[in-house]
Amino acid sequence: MDKHTWLEVSFLLPGEQAEAVAEILNRYAHQGVVIERDLQSDNPNQMKVYAYLLEDDSLEQCKQEIEKAIFYLNKILPVPAPTYRQIRDQDWMAAWRQFYKPVKIGKRLIVIPAWFDVTKADKGRLPIRINPGMAFGTGTHPTTQLSLSLMEKYVRTGDTIIDVGCGSGVLSIAGILLGAVHSIAVDVSGAAILSSQENAALNEVENEIEIDKASVPEILAGKFSYKKAPLVVANILLKVLEELFDQGMGKLVEDKGYLLISGILVDQMQTIEEKAQTNGFTRVDSVVQDDWVAIAFVKQS
């Protein structure tokens, strides 16, 4: 990413309100929206929802549109006013170093920051090194943790993977460390692609992960090494998941293969399950943390 100045738009609020605010921010923040647990709060349900607006000629218009949408949302769901903070690209890592700590996930994984001494990590776990940046998937948010927990169960030695909306690349990296031989990792955010490439190199799996700015249609069109895989993962907001199903995400999964979905709230589970069923999938597993859920579906042959 070029060196720019960004305006951070952030909200601190309970998990059940996070999805609605994230959908508003997603309309205007083209680098993506992040929902993470508030690392400075003792309340595990306290979330920070944030996004970044490039400081250019459209900034003021974007701010006004966001504030107007929040005003109307507040009439039906109380939400706080946004907080704004100017950030330069070079300040990004300094802010993360202050708060980001290793995160143990499931039985076998631990997500550690790039600057952390890997020799001090839990010896019984596979370390995933992540350089936090303007991309979703640092390991602190429940949806990332839930996705990784399911991957521990469903990645089989020799698998290939397709990672839709790869963010930081953490799911693809975990897949390779757990025994998969290759992953296609795509995202529509340029920031996510750069982050995934950097993190893949940090974990020395860059040769096993095919990373590019794309989505479901490009994979189906044959622009990558394969069009189907026995395991497909997607950790994205509900609205985007529904759109991806409409674009043919189900076709990426081999018969009797697995689709792991996260990024959704517990009360949205029925909606996405019905969408999956209409595309030939059956739910076989789910895990819950706070208000969030991750679901494993199997594709019927």
Automatic annotation (TrEMBL):
SUPFAM superfamilies cross-referenced by the UniProt entry: S-adenosyl-L-methionine-dependent methyltransferases
GO cellular component, as recorded: cytoplasm; ribosome
GO biological process: methylation
TM regions (residue ranges): none
InterPro entries: Ribosomal_L11_MeTrfase_PrmA, Ribosomal_PrmA_MeTrfase, SAM-dependent_MTases_sf
Subcellular location, record wording: Cytoplasm
Enzyme nomenclature, EC number: 2.1.1.-
GO molecular function: protein-lysine N-methyltransferase activity
Keyword annotations of the record: Cytoplasm, Methyltransferase, Ribonucleoprotein, Ribosomal protein, S-adenosyl-L-methionine, Transferase
Pfam families: PrmA
Annotated catalysed reactions: L-lysyl-[protein] + 3 S-adenosyl-L-methionine = N(6),N(6),N(6)-trimethyl-L-lysyl-[protein] + 3 S-adenosyl-L-homocysteine + 3 H(+)
Positions annotated to bind S-adenosyl-L-methionine: T144, G165, D187, N235
Domain of life: Bacteria
Keyword Methyltransferase among UniProt keywords: yes
NCBIfam families (UniProt xref): prmA (TIGR00406)
UniProt record similarity statement: Belongs to the methyltransferase superfamily. PrmA family.
Purpose: Methylates ribosomal protein L11.
The protein's name: Ribosomal protein L11 methyltransferase
Originating species: Anaerolinea thermophila
